[in-house]
Amino acid sequence: MGAGRAASRQAGLSMSVAQRHKAETREIAEPLCRLEDLVDGRSRGFDPLGEGRDTMFVVRRGAAVHAWRNHCPHYDRARMAWKKDEFLDPSGERIMCFAHGALFDIASGECVLGPCLGQSLTPVEIELRDGLVRVRGKYAPGFRR
């Protein structure tokens, strides 16, 4: 490997995850879905950057839609759902990390039970406009495999 290429690789390795995410964020032009497509009291995952996996999810509660990154604060690489679009506990009252059993408040994202007690899910800013659900601002890619 040439000296320039090695130096470039070393510089890339020294970037923090936060720095890489900041460098890779971008606007999402397409809406996630129509509001009417979200079933009240249910969750749904989305892949806004086309990474091949749901990196975020939403939960609809009446007129409110809450959006979160699809990772547990206890272990960043843990995806929350046990199968496609299943992010809620059996009662439908809490978000559940199926890797750890942690429970989260739907509105605040705060962990109320489990190994990440007191920590919170990472919110995704969304907007509801003209019957469409859109990511507001820039969105960073999900975790890398």
Key traits:
three-stranded antiparallel beta sheet; 145 residues; 2 helices; Rieske Iron-sulfur Protein
Walkthrough of the structure:
The protein has 145 residues and is α+β, with helices and mostly antiparallel strands. It has one domain (28-139): 3-layer Sandwich (Rieske Iron-sulfur Protein). It has helices at residues 3-14, 17-24, and strands at 26-27, 33-34, 43-46, 56-61, 64-69, 94-96, 103-105, 111-113, 126-129, 132-135, 138-139. Strand 6 and strand 7 form a beta hairpin. The protein starts with a helix and ends in a 6-residue tail after the last strand. Residues 1-17 have low confidence and may be disordered.
